[in-house]
Amino acid sequence: MSGGVSAYAAISSRVRAMYANLLTPQDVLQLSEASDFSSLFGLLKNTAYGPYLDSLKDKDIAPKRAIIQIKRKLAASYNSVIQMTPVETRPLVKELYRYFELGNLKAILRGLVTVSVGNSETTLWDRVREVLFPLGSDTVLPAQAMIESGSVTSAVDLLHGTPYEEALSFAMKRYSAEQNLFPLEVALDLSHWRRLWSQAGKLTGQDHQYGAKIIGSLLDMNNLMWAIRYRVYYKLSEEEIINYTLPFGYRVHDSDIRAIAAGADIAPIVMRIYPMIGDVNVMFEEPQAGLPKLEFQLKRQLMNQCLSAFVGSPFHIGIPLAFLVMSDLEVQDLTVLIEAKSSNMPDDEYRPFLLKPTLLN
Hints:
CATH architecture of the domain at 1-88 and 317-361: Orthogonal Bundle
Shape: globular
CATH superfamily of the domain at 1-88 and 317-361: ATP synthase (C/AC39) subunit, domain 3
Largest sheet: none
Strand content: under 5%
CATH class of the domain at 1-88 and 317-361: Mainly Alpha
Radius of gyration: 21 Å
Number of strands: 0
Structural class: mainly alpha
Helix content: 55-70%
Number of helices: 19
CATH topology of the domain at 1-88 and 317-361: Topoisomerase I, Chain A, domain 4
């Protein structure tokens, strides 16, 4: 057993204590009843997110800044877990954390192809850094230098020696020809998930069992939604869909992705893989509205996989991984709430997309 029983006994105890500080489904429901963003912000200050929101002065209390501060708690959770994790499993947790750096890299590249910042007093760097996940010194990205380099090509040149160099070097040829970020973003996504799945595959015993289940469930959700979107939204060819997806997974296998790519009826494939998800046929009657609902249901299944890691033996990496994924899903719920309340969105438009309250059903 990786790390030993004594090591995991200590980690499990500390992670369970951190898990107890997550919001309950009832908490999220109560937050959803806030009348506006100001009221929601006040309620959040009385939760475990309070210390991260206290640093905002009155003039800084804006939805974007509140979201960044909330993400700082998630970053702190990752840092704590990484420090506690046995050396054998640490590379997996670090690679999972790198997902947020990948998001930052995409934001930087997208910023570089933006035509105008819209306000002469606002620099492109000022605007981009407002949406970056707060990794602090944990990042390998020279973010400001990349933005100030002035072009995607120059920015990518600054990534020499990082985990992103190889994937981008292959994709840059197509970017140069098409001036489209799509091949770069796909290359980055596929490279990240290959590394993550590879790290999960290196584990043994219960670490492998739970690592593959949780990481595999994340991978499955992304891979399946990629394949469906590429076909339904972007009308990509069979060859392109296969090239832009992954040939492995936990529940979703290469044969499933190839069937979708080849034009098979998607709903029966999804229902076979996830028989617990209802109304799949209805979702595909109007894909524009149905696919976000499918992704929500896949996240709900992921959440259930995480909850199952807390049942039974505590001596494995599944509990720390499950806590981190649940923390991220909680931040996603809070982001939905903040954006909904700040834009005066009707309750019936956003509440169906809150994950935590579904645990009450």
